[in-house]
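Project standup — Tuesday

K.O.: blocked on the structure for the chain from last sprint. Re-posting the sequence here as requested.
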Amino acid sequence: MKPEATRPHFLPMKTLKLLLAGAVLCGLMTATLRSQPPAVIRIDLERRISKIDPNIYGAFVEPIRTVVYGSIYDPKSPLADENGFRKDFVQLVKELKIPVVRWPGGNFVSGYNWEDGIGPKDQRPARLDLAWHQVESNQMGTDEYVKLCRLIGAENFICINAGLGTLDQARHWVEYCNYPGGTYYSDLRRKYGNAKPFKVKYWALGNEIDGPWQMGQKSAEDYCKFALEAAKLIQWVDKDTTLIACGASNYGRGTNNAWIDWNDYVLEHMIGKIDYLSVHRYVREVLGGETSFPAVMSRALDIDEKIEIVKALIKKATAKSASTRPVYISFDEWSAGGPGGGNTLTGALMVAQHLNSFIRHADIVKMANITMLSSLVGNSPAGDFKNALYQAFYLYSNNSRGTALDVYADCERYSNAAFKAIPYLDVTAVLSDSAKTVVLNVVNRHETNAFTTDVFLQNGACVGSATVKEINAEAINSSNTRTRQAIGVIAKEIQFQGDTIHYSFPAHSFTQMLIPIQ
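H.V.: unblocked you, prediction finished:
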């Protein structure tokens, strides 16, 4: 008898069939991966959505804890100017070319008396702010806010108190800001050192008044009664003002999408009297507490959904009323914060996706304001710095100005509990004001995979080089500090010829491509 070690082993027939099937399947999968077609982006210069309003690159300021005091306004800092504003902060923000700043709220404004924030600073009262359970010193009031906007080159956008405030407070505030002189409040402004009116253009008729978290919460009916009167009085004081009505913000569970009913009612009753409907949305509320990278990357699709629903409601109200006064969306609170966001690579990609959504809807979104202005800058007593959000915002606010194009993109997709068929590549394209450059913005939502892509220029061949600016980092939670810039902008030139650019968009990245056209 042969030793056991030398005896041949025969596998059962069932096992052989399984191994053979596995080998065939593996081969098919390998072949599929090897033959996976590239993603496709098609850019047609004739497919134009609308002119992009630069106001989509606006910001929002509310005196919550250190948002203002210690970050923007800090008279005790050696880096402060004669007005108390941090010079390093102002310089960095000026580079972002922010066109408009919304102030002072936010929930704060629903308990705010603007007269507490004017006059000699040592005589201004400290007030208990019930919105954020803090003491408000009122050291940065209306005059200081206007100075800040002038320093950074931004338009003023004031939100009135439609919660606990009165109609008299609203009209007097406009008189203080915009009336030339010869009246009590305009002369008070002159007494405090501002002979010329501020000419505040944008006035919001309250903040999130549908929300139970708001001081002076109102029903849609009660809100419209107040807002219609406020709108009338504001424009009687200054007919050149632009008005923003308060859209719904209460998207919470158990509300049965009542936010749609609120917006529908407000639009039906106020169309013809307003210029914008405010939309607020913090996408961290989507998918509960899930913080995986694919989940966080999918949340920006909720912005598209909210915009499209409100756009339809505006169209409906306009048709019913036959009003000739157009109404647009002012998306005046949004954020890249929350779980997985903030000063990280993920946060920068969320900024890019929000701005992509506003560009895609350039025909209806004519203003947007990131929460908060100070979130765009890293704060340090030794000197402010460019954080992760700054890097993405800068590329958009400086380069993505012009006309939004209806770009076609086809790529791999994924799904989750909230959204189906989520494209891994989030794409927008902008025809520059000079009409000599196409700006292509691409976010790769995939955590590990790059996507080889064919970018087709539908309107003819070009020869030359394109400038590529990429934001990426070693890890999705990488962040910037004053001494270490883990997330920056890497620029390079790529050569191309003809009507096609072949490019691979790296995993977890934002890429902006500036393509010269004939």
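K.O.: great, moving the ticket to review. Residues 13-34 form the longest helix (22 residues). The chain is about 30% helix and 25% strand.
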